Amino acid sequence: MAGQQRYLRYIVFALAIILLFFISSSSSVPSAQWPSYKGDQSAVADPTTNKPAAPLAGADKDSTATTPNTQNGLPPATAGGERMNATFVTLARNSDIWDIAESIRHIEDRFNRKFHYDWVFLNDDDFNDEFKKITTALVSGTAKYGKIPKEHWSFPDFIDQDRAAKVREEMKEKKIIYGDSISYRHMCRYESGFFFRHPLMLDYEWYWRVEPSVKLFCDIDYDTFKFMADHKKKYSFTLSLYEYVETIPTLWDAVKNFTSVYPQHVVDGNSMKWISEDDGKTYNHCHFWSNFEIGNLNWLRSQAYIDYFTSLDHAGGFFYERWGDAPVHSIAAALMLKKEEIHFFNDIAYYHVPFTHCPTGEQYRLDHKCSCNPKDNFDWNGYSCTARFYEINGMDKPAGYEKEQ
Protein backbone atom coordinates (compact mmCIF):
# COMPACT_ATOMS: atom_id res chain seq x y z
CA MET A 1 0.00 0.00 0.00
CA ALA A 2 2.79 2.39 0.92
CA GLY A 3 4.53 1.61 -2.37
CA GLN A 4 1.47 2.47 -4.37
CA GLN A 5 1.19 5.88 -2.61
CA ARG A 6 4.82 6.70 -3.38
CA TYR A 7 4.27 5.71 -7.01
CA LEU A 8 1.22 7.99 -7.32
CA ARG A 9 3.16 10.95 -5.83
CA TYR A 10 5.95 10.48 -8.42
CA ILE A 11 3.39 10.51 -11.24
CA VAL A 12 1.66 13.76 -9.98
CA PHE A 13 5.02 15.53 -9.56
CA ALA A 14 6.13 14.54 -13.07
CA LEU A 15 2.85 15.75 -14.60
CA ALA A 16 3.22 19.15 -12.83
CA ILE A 17 6.75 19.60 -14.23
CA ILE A 18 5.55 18.80 -17.75
CA LEU A 19 2.61 21.24 -17.47
CA LEU A 20 4.78 24.16 -16.31
CA PHE A 21 7.25 23.53 -19.13
CA PHE A 22 4.44 23.52 -21.68
CA ILE A 23 2.99 26.85 -20.43
CA SER A 24 6.32 28.69 -20.39
CA SER A 25 7.37 27.49 -23.84
CA SER A 26 4.04 28.14 -25.62
CA SER A 27 3.24 31.68 -24.28
CA SER A 28 3.44 34.52 -26.88
CA VAL A 29 3.44 37.38 -24.31
CA PRO A 30 6.95 38.77 -23.73
CA SER A 31 8.00 39.53 -20.21
CA ALA A 32 8.09 43.24 -19.28
CA GLN A 33 11.52 44.81 -19.29
CA TRP A 34 11.21 48.26 -17.67
CA PRO A 35 14.03 50.76 -18.24
CA SER A 36 16.19 51.42 -15.27
CA TYR A 37 15.79 54.92 -13.78
CA LYS A 38 18.39 57.09 -12.15
CA GLY A 39 17.66 60.40 -10.52
CA ASP A 40 20.13 62.34 -12.67
CA GLN A 41 18.75 61.23 -16.05
CA SER A 42 17.53 64.03 -18.28
CA ALA A 43 15.80 61.82 -20.85
CA VAL A 44 12.62 59.79 -20.86
CA ALA A 45 12.51 56.21 -22.21
CA ASP A 46 10.86 55.62 -25.59
CA PRO A 47 8.09 53.06 -24.84
CA THR A 48 8.21 51.61 -28.39
CA THR A 49 11.89 50.69 -28.34
CA ASN A 50 12.55 50.55 -24.63
CA LYS A 51 15.59 52.76 -25.21
CA PRO A 52 16.35 56.18 -23.77
CA ALA A 53 14.96 59.02 -25.86
CA ALA A 54 16.92 62.09 -26.84
CA PRO A 55 17.55 64.52 -23.98
CA LEU A 56 14.80 67.06 -23.32
CA ALA A 57 15.40 70.50 -24.76
CA GLY A 58 17.29 72.62 -22.31
CA ALA A 59 17.97 69.73 -19.93
CA ASP A 60 21.36 69.26 -18.34
CA LYS A 61 23.03 66.35 -16.63
CA ASP A 62 21.88 67.41 -13.18
CA SER A 63 18.21 68.09 -13.89
CA THR A 64 15.34 65.65 -13.50
CA ALA A 65 12.93 65.23 -16.40
CA THR A 66 9.72 66.29 -14.70
CA THR A 67 8.33 69.83 -14.95
CA PRO A 68 10.16 72.63 -16.77
CA ASN A 69 13.21 73.80 -14.92
CA THR A 70 12.78 77.42 -13.81
CA GLN A 71 15.59 77.50 -11.29
CA ASN A 72 17.40 80.12 -13.32
CA GLY A 73 14.54 82.59 -12.86
CA LEU A 74 11.03 83.30 -14.01
CA PRO A 75 10.13 82.66 -17.64
CA PRO A 76 10.11 85.72 -19.89
CA ALA A 77 6.97 87.82 -20.19
CA THR A 78 4.62 86.17 -22.62
CA ALA A 79 3.22 89.42 -23.98
CA GLY A 80 5.47 91.28 -26.36
CA GLY A 81 5.65 95.00 -26.98
CA GLU A 82 6.78 98.11 -25.21
CA ARG A 83 6.36 98.34 -21.44
CA MET A 84 4.99 101.46 -19.80
CA ASN A 85 6.68 103.32 -16.98
CA ALA A 86 4.28 101.81 -14.44
CA THR A 87 4.06 100.04 -11.11
CA PHE A 88 1.64 98.41 -8.73
CA VAL A 89 1.47 100.20 -5.39
CA THR A 90 0.29 98.78 -2.08
CA LEU A 91 -0.07 100.37 1.31
CA ALA A 92 0.35 97.55 3.84
CA ARG A 93 1.72 96.55 7.20
CA ASN A 94 3.71 93.48 8.16
CA SER A 95 0.59 91.91 9.67
CA ASP A 96 -1.09 92.07 6.24
CA ILE A 97 1.37 89.64 4.70
CA TRP A 98 -0.97 86.72 3.97
CA ASP A 99 -3.81 88.96 2.82
CA ILE A 100 -1.54 90.82 0.42
CA ALA A 101 -0.01 87.53 -0.70
CA GLU A 102 -3.47 86.48 -1.87
CA SER A 103 -3.89 89.76 -3.77
CA ILE A 104 -0.50 89.42 -5.45
CA ARG A 105 -1.29 85.88 -6.53
CA HIS A 106 -4.50 87.04 -8.20
CA ILE A 107 -2.81 89.96 -9.95
CA GLU A 108 0.13 87.87 -11.13
CA ASP A 109 -1.95 84.91 -12.32
CA ARG A 110 -4.53 86.98 -14.17
CA PHE A 111 -2.32 89.78 -15.51
CA ASN A 112 1.24 90.48 -14.44
CA ARG A 113 2.80 87.11 -15.28
CA LYS A 114 2.49 88.35 -18.87
CA PHE A 115 4.07 91.78 -18.26
CA HIS A 116 6.28 91.70 -15.13
CA TYR A 117 5.59 95.22 -13.88
CA ASP A 118 7.24 96.40 -10.64
CA TRP A 119 5.58 96.54 -7.26
CA VAL A 120 6.04 99.29 -4.65
CA PHE A 121 5.11 98.48 -1.03
CA LEU A 122 4.66 101.37 1.40
CA ASN A 123 4.37 101.22 5.19
CA ASP A 124 4.35 103.70 8.04
CA ASP A 125 6.81 101.35 9.77
CA ASP A 126 9.77 99.26 8.56
CA PHE A 127 8.91 96.13 6.61
CA ASN A 128 10.25 92.99 8.26
CA ASP A 129 12.27 90.26 6.56
CA GLU A 130 9.33 87.87 6.29
CA PHE A 131 7.18 90.40 4.43
CA LYS A 132 10.00 91.18 2.02
CA LYS A 133 10.93 87.53 1.47
CA ILE A 134 7.40 86.39 0.69
CA THR A 135 6.34 89.31 -1.49
CA THR A 136 9.61 89.30 -3.42
CA ALA A 137 9.07 85.62 -4.21
CA LEU A 138 5.52 86.24 -5.41
CA VAL A 139 5.92 89.23 -7.73
CA SER A 140 7.33 88.84 -11.24
CA GLY A 141 8.66 92.39 -11.46
CA THR A 142 11.00 94.17 -9.05
CA ALA A 143 9.67 94.60 -5.51
CA LYS A 144 10.52 97.88 -3.75
CA TYR A 145 9.90 98.73 -0.10
CA GLY A 146 9.45 102.23 1.26
CA LYS A 147 8.78 103.81 4.63
CA ILE A 148 6.30 106.67 4.82
CA PRO A 149 7.77 109.89 6.24
CA LYS A 150 6.38 110.73 9.66
CA GLU A 151 5.12 114.12 8.48
CA HIS A 152 2.86 112.32 5.99
CA TRP A 153 1.42 109.97 8.63
CA SER A 154 0.68 112.20 11.62
CA PHE A 155 -1.54 115.05 12.69
CA PRO A 156 -0.54 118.28 10.92
CA ASP A 157 0.13 121.19 13.27
CA PHE A 158 -3.04 123.03 12.22
CA ILE A 159 -5.32 120.28 13.60
CA ASP A 160 -6.93 120.77 17.03
CA GLN A 161 -6.23 117.44 18.72
CA ASP A 162 -8.96 117.84 21.35
CA ARG A 163 -11.58 118.60 18.72
CA ALA A 164 -10.47 115.63 16.62
CA ALA A 165 -10.62 113.30 19.65
CA LYS A 166 -14.14 114.47 20.48
CA VAL A 167 -15.27 113.76 16.93
CA ARG A 168 -13.88 110.22 17.07
CA GLU A 169 -15.73 109.56 20.31
CA GLU A 170 -19.00 110.86 18.86
CA MET A 171 -18.61 108.72 15.74
CA LYS A 172 -17.87 105.68 17.88
CA GLU A 173 -21.14 106.19 19.76
CA LYS A 174 -23.00 106.51 16.44
CA LYS A 175 -21.27 103.32 15.22
CA ILE A 176 -19.97 104.97 12.07
CA ILE A 177 -17.59 102.64 10.25
CA TYR A 178 -13.96 103.44 11.18
CA GLY A 179 -15.39 106.46 12.98
CA ASP A 180 -13.04 106.20 15.96
CA SER A 181 -9.94 105.08 14.05
CA ILE A 182 -6.89 107.33 13.97
CA SER A 183 -4.89 105.08 11.64
CA TYR A 184 -7.72 104.94 9.12
CA ARG A 185 -7.77 108.73 8.97
CA HIS A 186 -4.02 108.84 8.42
CA MET A 187 -4.43 106.29 5.64
CA CYS A 188 -7.17 108.28 3.90
CA ARG A 189 -5.14 111.47 4.10
CA TYR A 190 -2.01 109.71 2.84
CA GLU A 191 -3.78 108.09 -0.12
CA SER A 192 -5.43 111.41 -0.92
CA GLY A 193 -2.37 113.58 -1.00
CA PHE A 194 0.98 111.85 -0.50
CA PHE A 195 1.45 108.34 -1.91
CA PHE A 196 2.32 109.69 -5.35
CA ARG A 197 5.01 111.92 -3.83
CA HIS A 198 6.94 109.10 -2.15
CA PRO A 199 10.51 108.91 -3.54
CA LEU A 200 9.95 105.36 -4.83
CA MET A 201 6.87 106.48 -6.77
CA LEU A 202 8.68 109.36 -8.45
CA ASP A 203 10.27 106.85 -10.83
CA TYR A 204 6.91 106.07 -12.43
CA GLU A 205 4.21 107.67 -14.56
CA TRP A 206 1.41 105.12 -14.07
CA TYR A 207 0.12 103.22 -11.06
CA TRP A 208 -2.30 100.40 -10.23
CA ARG A 209 -3.41 100.44 -6.62
CA VAL A 210 -3.79 97.03 -4.95
CA GLU A 211 -5.02 96.35 -1.43
CA PRO A 212 -4.89 93.21 0.75
CA SER A 213 -7.47 90.49 0.08
CA VAL A 214 -8.64 91.63 -3.34
CA LYS A 215 -9.40 89.20 -6.17
CA LEU A 216 -9.39 89.24 -9.96
CA PHE A 217 -11.77 86.79 -11.61
CA CYS A 218 -10.91 87.03 -15.32
CA ASP A 219 -7.77 86.84 -17.46
CA ILE A 220 -6.52 90.22 -18.66
CA ASP A 221 -4.78 89.69 -21.98
CA TYR A 222 -3.70 93.24 -22.77
CA ASP A 223 -1.56 95.89 -21.09
CA THR A 224 -3.95 98.06 -19.09
CA PHE A 225 -1.30 100.76 -18.61
CA LYS A 226 -0.68 101.00 -22.34
CA PHE A 227 -4.43 101.10 -22.94
CA MET A 228 -4.68 104.09 -20.61
CA ALA A 229 -1.84 105.89 -22.36
CA ASP A 230 -2.96 105.09 -25.91
CA HIS A 231 -6.52 106.24 -25.22
CA LYS A 232 -5.49 109.35 -23.27
CA LYS A 233 -7.12 108.16 -20.05
CA LYS A 234 -5.93 109.46 -16.68
CA TYR A 235 -8.15 107.71 -14.14
CA SER A 236 -10.11 104.46 -14.07
CA PHE A 237 -12.39 102.37 -11.87
CA THR A 238 -14.28 99.08 -11.63
CA LEU A 239 -16.81 99.86 -8.88
CA SER A 240 -18.71 102.99 -7.90
CA LEU A 241 -21.21 103.68 -5.13
CA TYR A 242 -22.59 106.28 -2.75
CA GLU A 243 -20.47 107.38 0.19
CA TYR A 244 -21.63 107.25 3.81
CA VAL A 245 -23.21 110.67 4.36
CA GLU A 246 -22.14 110.75 8.02
CA THR A 247 -18.44 110.65 7.11
CA ILE A 248 -18.37 113.72 4.82
CA PRO A 249 -20.96 116.28 6.01
CA THR A 250 -18.87 119.34 4.97
CA LEU A 251 -16.72 117.87 2.16
CA TRP A 252 -18.74 119.50 -0.62
CA ASP A 253 -18.57 122.88 1.13
CA ALA A 254 -14.78 122.55 1.15
CA VAL A 255 -14.81 121.60 -2.54
CA LYS A 256 -16.92 124.65 -3.43
CA ASN A 257 -14.51 126.82 -1.47
CA PHE A 258 -11.66 125.36 -3.53
CA THR A 259 -13.41 125.93 -6.88
CA SER A 260 -14.19 129.54 -5.92
CA VAL A 261 -10.52 130.21 -5.18
CA TYR A 262 -9.14 128.16 -8.10
CA PRO A 263 -11.78 128.28 -10.85
CA GLN A 264 -9.04 127.70 -13.43
CA HIS A 265 -8.62 124.12 -12.19
CA VAL A 266 -12.17 123.12 -13.16
CA VAL A 267 -12.04 121.97 -16.79
CA ASP A 268 -14.67 122.25 -19.47
CA GLY A 269 -16.32 119.00 -20.47
CA ASN A 270 -15.97 117.53 -16.98
CA SER A 271 -18.14 115.01 -15.12
CA MET A 272 -19.95 117.39 -12.78
CA LYS A 273 -23.27 115.77 -13.71
CA TRP A 274 -22.02 112.48 -12.34
CA ILE A 275 -21.42 113.88 -8.83
CA SER A 276 -24.19 116.50 -8.70
CA GLU A 277 -27.78 116.57 -9.86
CA ASP A 278 -28.22 120.33 -9.48
CA ASP A 279 -25.20 121.77 -11.32
CA GLY A 280 -22.90 121.67 -8.32
CA LYS A 281 -25.09 123.10 -5.58
CA THR A 282 -25.02 119.80 -3.72
CA TYR A 283 -23.06 116.55 -3.88
CA ASN A 284 -24.95 113.32 -4.57
CA HIS A 285 -22.19 111.26 -2.83
CA CYS A 286 -21.27 109.18 -5.90
CA HIS A 287 -17.64 108.11 -5.89
CA PHE A 288 -15.29 105.65 -7.55
CA TRP A 289 -14.19 102.94 -5.13
CA SER A 290 -10.52 103.80 -4.89
CA ASN A 291 -9.24 100.48 -3.52
CA PHE A 292 -8.93 99.77 -7.25
CA GLU A 293 -7.37 102.50 -9.37
CA ILE A 294 -5.26 102.59 -12.48
CA GLY A 295 -4.19 106.14 -13.04
CA ASN A 296 -1.71 108.71 -14.19
CA LEU A 297 0.71 109.92 -11.52
CA ASN A 298 1.58 113.11 -13.36
CA TRP A 299 -2.03 114.22 -13.03
CA LEU A 300 -1.92 113.68 -9.27
CA ARG A 301 1.36 115.61 -9.12
CA SER A 302 -0.09 118.50 -11.14
CA GLN A 303 -0.46 121.94 -9.58
CA ALA A 304 -4.23 121.64 -9.93
CA TYR A 305 -4.45 118.48 -7.83
CA ILE A 306 -1.88 119.69 -5.27
CA ASP A 307 -3.87 122.92 -4.79
CA TYR A 308 -7.03 120.86 -4.42
CA PHE A 309 -5.58 118.52 -1.79
CA THR A 310 -3.91 121.34 0.14
CA SER A 311 -7.19 123.25 0.28
CA LEU A 312 -9.10 120.22 1.58
CA ASP A 313 -6.34 119.29 4.02
CA HIS A 314 -6.45 122.69 5.69
CA ALA A 315 -10.23 122.46 5.98
CA GLY A 316 -9.50 119.68 8.50
CA GLY A 317 -12.12 117.18 7.36
CA PHE A 318 -9.76 114.21 7.37
CA PHE A 319 -9.67 114.49 11.18
CA TYR A 320 -12.71 116.57 12.18
CA GLU A 321 -14.91 114.27 10.12
CA ARG A 322 -13.75 111.09 8.36
CA TRP A 323 -13.19 112.02 4.75
CA GLY A 324 -12.23 109.02 2.65
CA ASP A 325 -9.72 109.12 -0.17
CA ALA A 326 -12.36 107.63 -2.50
CA PRO A 327 -14.66 110.68 -2.61
CA VAL A 328 -11.62 112.98 -2.54
CA HIS A 329 -10.11 111.32 -5.64
CA SER A 330 -13.48 110.97 -7.34
CA ILE A 331 -14.49 114.61 -6.98
CA ALA A 332 -11.07 115.69 -8.25
CA ALA A 333 -11.37 113.43 -11.30
CA ALA A 334 -14.93 114.57 -11.95
CA LEU A 335 -13.99 118.26 -11.88
CA MET A 336 -10.43 118.38 -13.18
CA LEU A 337 -10.53 115.74 -15.92
CA LYS A 338 -12.55 115.67 -19.10
CA LYS A 339 -15.25 113.01 -19.23
CA GLU A 340 -13.35 111.00 -21.81
CA GLU A 341 -10.26 110.87 -19.57
CA ILE A 342 -12.04 108.61 -17.04
CA HIS A 343 -12.42 104.93 -17.92
CA PHE A 344 -14.64 102.16 -16.60
CA PHE A 345 -12.90 98.77 -16.84
CA ASN A 346 -15.91 96.52 -17.40
CA ASP A 347 -13.51 93.74 -18.39
CA ILE A 348 -11.51 93.69 -15.13
CA ALA A 349 -13.45 91.38 -12.81
CA TYR A 350 -12.71 92.60 -9.31
CA TYR A 351 -13.64 91.91 -5.70
CA HIS A 352 -13.01 93.84 -2.51
CA VAL A 353 -15.19 92.96 0.44
CA PRO A 354 -18.15 93.26 0.23
CA PHE A 355 -18.63 94.19 -3.46
CA THR A 356 -17.96 92.38 -6.73
CA HIS A 357 -17.60 93.68 -10.25
CA CYS A 358 -18.27 90.75 -12.59
CA PRO A 359 -18.15 91.76 -16.28
CA THR A 360 -21.53 92.09 -17.94
CA GLY A 361 -21.48 89.87 -21.02
CA GLU A 362 -21.51 86.07 -20.99
CA GLN A 363 -19.24 85.58 -24.01
CA TYR A 364 -16.53 87.77 -22.49
CA ARG A 365 -16.67 85.79 -19.26
CA LEU A 366 -16.32 82.52 -21.16
CA ASP A 367 -13.50 83.76 -23.39
CA HIS A 368 -11.49 85.11 -20.45
CA LYS A 369 -11.97 82.19 -18.08
CA CYS A 370 -13.90 84.22 -15.54
CA SER A 371 -14.80 82.57 -12.25
CA CYS A 372 -17.19 85.20 -10.85
CA ASN A 373 -20.92 84.71 -10.52
CA PRO A 374 -22.73 87.35 -12.62
CA LYS A 375 -25.46 87.39 -9.99
CA ASP A 376 -22.92 88.99 -7.63
CA ASN A 377 -22.24 91.90 -9.99
CA PHE A 378 -22.82 95.19 -8.16
CA ASP A 379 -22.86 97.47 -11.23
CA TRP A 380 -26.61 97.63 -11.79
CA ASN A 381 -27.54 97.59 -8.10
CA GLY A 382 -29.52 100.62 -6.96
CA TYR A 383 -26.69 101.68 -4.65
CA SER A 384 -24.18 101.72 -7.53
CA CYS A 385 -23.36 104.87 -9.50
CA THR A 386 -22.07 103.00 -12.56
CA ALA A 387 -25.36 103.24 -14.50
CA ARG A 388 -25.19 107.00 -13.95
CA PHE A 389 -21.65 107.04 -15.35
CA TYR A 390 -22.93 105.36 -18.53
CA GLU A 391 -25.75 107.88 -18.83
CA ILE A 392 -23.74 111.08 -18.41
CA ASN A 393 -21.21 109.80 -20.95
CA GLY A 394 -23.86 108.78 -23.47
CA MET A 395 -22.67 105.16 -23.42
CA ASP A 396 -24.79 102.13 -24.25
CA LYS A 397 -25.04 99.74 -21.33
CA PRO A 398 -23.55 96.27 -21.96
CA ALA A 399 -25.84 93.68 -23.48
CA GLY A 400 -27.54 91.64 -20.77
CA TYR A 401 -27.32 94.25 -18.01
CA GLU A 402 -31.12 94.07 -17.49
CA LYS A 403 -30.77 90.52 -16.17
CA GLU A 404 -28.43 91.73 -13.43
CA GLN A 405 -30.58 94.54 -12.05
UniProtKB/TrEMBL annotation:
GO CC term, one of those recorded: Golgi apparatus
InterPro entries for the chain: Glyco_trans_15, Nucleotide-diphossugar_trans
Keyword Metal-binding: no
One Pfam match: Glyco_transf_15
SUPFAM superfamilies (alphabetical): Nucleotide-diphospho-sugar transferases
Coiled-coil region(s): none
GO molecular function: alpha-1,2-mannosyltransferase activity
Signal sequence bounds: 1-28
Annotated keywords: Glycosyltransferase, Signal, Transferase
Top-level lineage group: Eukaryota
List of catalytic residues: 293
Region: Disordered, residue numbers: 36-81
Biased composition (Polar residues): 64-73
Gene Ontology BP annotations: cell wall mannoprotein biosynthetic process; protein N-linked glycosylation; protein O-linked glycosylation
Gene3D superfamilies (alphabetical): Spore Coat Polysaccharide Biosynthesis Protein SpsA, Chain A (3.90.550.10)
Recorded family membership: Belongs to the glycosyltransferase 15 family.
The protein, known as: Glycosyl transferase
